[in-house]
Amino acid sequence: MLKKRILSSTFLLIILIGTLSIDNRKLFPIFLALITAISIWEWSCLTLSHFLKQYLSLPVSILFFIGMLILINNWFSGGNFLVRQEMFLMLLTDFIWVFFVIPSVFLGNIKTNRETSIWFFFGLLANFVCWSLLTLNYLNRGTWFIISLLGLVWVVDVLAYFLGKFFGKKNYLQKLALEKP
User: Fold this and answer.
1) Where are the domains of the chain?
2) Angle ∠(174,176,180) on CA atoms, nearest 5
3) How far is 154 from 168, CA to CA, in rounded Å?
4) Which of 16, 33, 35, 168 is the S-S candidate for 68 at Cβ 3.0 to 4.6 Å?
């Protein structure tokens, strides 16, 4: 498990550094759009029923990728489509996260009701909001802001992994980690 995490993070880090080091400001938002489309595909495979997964996962991911490319083009052409609405979308996502997702996880409903369209649509919204916030912050604040933000996420992720490895022997929330004894 740790080997896979190190390999995938190293691979993504190399691609990230490559896209940020090239003197083309459009390349990094396109890279983020591709990663987001892959994330949407993976999320739809997790949340849709087997029947819907076959027919919707890839087309929805491709449509989102095309939509993100259109937005990138709009933003680089001087347009501000969805820039003002971004704050509303972010607040809506935060509201859903705090009042629905977190309680659902702690109540243990996440495992049984995983294949519902509600989780699918929330995943689409959350992925899109994360992509647009990262892209707009990259365009407005620059490369170093994004690197520091991603570095913070990586450090917290690695710390959570090791803290879980060392202190996670006892299962305090049985509904969340069914595999643990």
Assistant:
1) 29-162
2) 55
3) 20
4) 33
